Amino acid sequence: MHTTSLTALALSLSLSLLALTSASPLQPAKRFVGGWCGVHLRVSSGSQHMLDAEAHVYDGAAVLLANPPGTHSGNGALTIDIEGGGLPRPLRVAVSQDSERENVASFEYGDDAWGAGPADSQNSRCKVGKWDHASPWDEHETVDLDCGFSC
After folding, report:
1. Which of 16, 59, 91, 127 satisfies CB 3.0 to 4.6 Å to 82 for a cystine?
2. Which residues, including other chains, have CB under 8 Å from residue 40's CB and lie 6 or more apart?
3. What is the model's pTM?
4. What does the pLDDT average to over 35-57?
């Protein structure tokens, strides 16, 4: 009698699992959600005016896709190239060593290109904070910006 009830329970579980998998097959999770994607960028300028930047790229569901390092070029500019991570096209972020700082960063995504604008400003794509000094005796300063783009 005990064996019969165990066999019946196993058969019932098997049929339940079969019904569950045939009614809603398991799908792999979609990694990228399109729509309005975002970039959070922190730009730092230190002694000898060396630039550094930290980027966080988010998809349309605000899921972090990438956090790539920047590459310094010979002219003091910094470039961050984001390929893969779910974005359908590469995203390029360029930060220049501009003394006037009219444009903290520029962006390219496919055929789309835009600028962040100067510090302490906002446009249709970006909101740029103020340059912040760690202390009055330190040359190091940072600025944070958030930008969006159609993805």
Report:
1. 91
2. 55, 56, 58, 144, 145, 146
3. 0.73
4. 85
